[in-house]
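Here is one chain, start to finish.
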Amino acid sequence: MEDESTKIYYVEQQLAKTLIELLKDKDFGEISIRELCNRAGVGRASFYRHYRSKEEVLERHAQFLIMTWAKELESDPDAKPRDVFESLFRHIKKHQVFYEILHKTGRDSVLQASLREKIGLTGTLPNEDAYQKVFFADGVSGWIEEWIERGMQETPDELTALLYHYFNAVLSNLSKIFKYD
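Its structure:
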């Protein structure tokens, strides 16, 4: 007998994969739950056992992908702080079709919410921690959204270099604006 978690994983992956395929050719609103389930080979009862909506399929898949990225990064003993951005940009490139679908359907906030969840942004954090985390999650998701909008022309390495160039420019300009020395 198949393990229950294996069945759940299969259902979730089939639904996500099928929804992504359908969204390549159809608008989100044109896809019915019935069509999604039929194409995925998953019963509607099984769908509703795991999800409330098609939106939730995308949300949970984004959470799964971000958690997978984070586990890979965190398991690398040689990872350095700078590697966070580059590895995230590589992850986005690797799963480009999915993230382009999120963008195309106006659901960029799904990535943002997944990043916020991964880094533990909650209402109970002290202000300083919350501000740092939201700056990271929302800032980097904004970079990714714009990268996708512009056709992902830069490589992950180039985008990381641009990001660090931007950080340096901001710090330099703040010094000029506020006359720090």
